[in-house]
Every structure is written in C-alpha cells, then in structure tokens.
Amino acid sequence: MMRISCPYLQGEVELTDERWQHILEQHPDLLPKYREQMAATVNEPDEVRRDQRFPETYLFSRWFVEVNKGKSIVVAVVSATTPVEERY
Questions:
Q1: ∠ CA 39-18-54 to the nearest 5 degrees?
Q2: What is the rounded CA–CA span in Å between residue 6 and residue 83?
Q3: In 1-88, where do the E strands start and end?
Q4: What SS3 class is residue 22?
Q5: Is 66 exposed, middle or buried (0-12, 13-18, 19+ CB in 10 A)?
Q6: DSSP code of 8?
Q7: Tally of CB atoms within 10 A around 2
Q8: Which of 19, 51, 61, 71 could anchor a disulfide with 57, C-beta 3.0 to 4.6 Å?
Q9: Sheet with 47-50, side-by-side order of all strands
Q10: Confidence at residue 86, expressed as pLDDT on a 0 to 100 scale
Q11: How much is the pTM?
C-alpha cells in the first residue's frame, strides 16, 4: 500500500494493493515508472474536478513534460470528504 499526502482533501490518499494491481494491468505505461509523478499529481494537482458519473470521485490531473514526451496524468480518488473550497 502507498500513502500520498493530499492537501486538497486535507489528509492522505491510500493506493491499495488492489488499485496498484489495477493500474499495472490497465495502465502499464504508468507504473512503476511514473510512481513519483502520480504522487505529485495528488499532492500538487494542476486541476481537480468531480467525476460526473460518481459524485464521490475526484479527478486530479497534472501535466508532466517527462511523461511520454508530454502528457497529463489523471488520478481518480474516491472520498466522502468535502474539500474546503466546496464547503462554502
């Protein structure tokens, strides 16, 4: 299991072994090569938006020049926590 600091949700995000395996199988270009970039995406995203189909899912995205010659990484985070920005 991997824990990632997530200031947006004011806590930590857990990347479970099951989700790690999913990423390895479904997105083999990401792990383990871009593990640090995935963590940086959650820690310091360029953008966060809600998934329209799943209201408790946040989509964190960040652009990286070094990822496949310039691509965004998008990390889906499921959380019942309401970010400070959405509380008011």
A1: 75
A2: 10
A3: 2-6, 11-15, 47-50, 57-64, 71-78
A4: helix
A5: exposed
A6: G
A7: 14
A8: 51
A9: 47-50, 57-64, 71-78
A10: 62
A11: 0.88
Q: Looking up tokens 């999913």, which residue turns up?
A: 22
Which residue shows structure tokens 């390895």? 24
Within 13 Å, how many C-alpha atoms sit on residue 72's CB side? 13
pLDDT, tens only, 53-84: 998 999 999 999 999 899 999 999 999 877 76
DSSP 67: S
Q: Is 77 in a helix, a strand, or coil? A: strand
Closest C-alpha to 4, from 33, 56, 40, 49:
40
The CA distance from 35 to 23, in Å, is 11
Whether the Cβ atoms of residue 61 and residue 72 lie closer than 8 Å to each other: yes
In which element (H, E) is residue 84 found?
helix 84-87
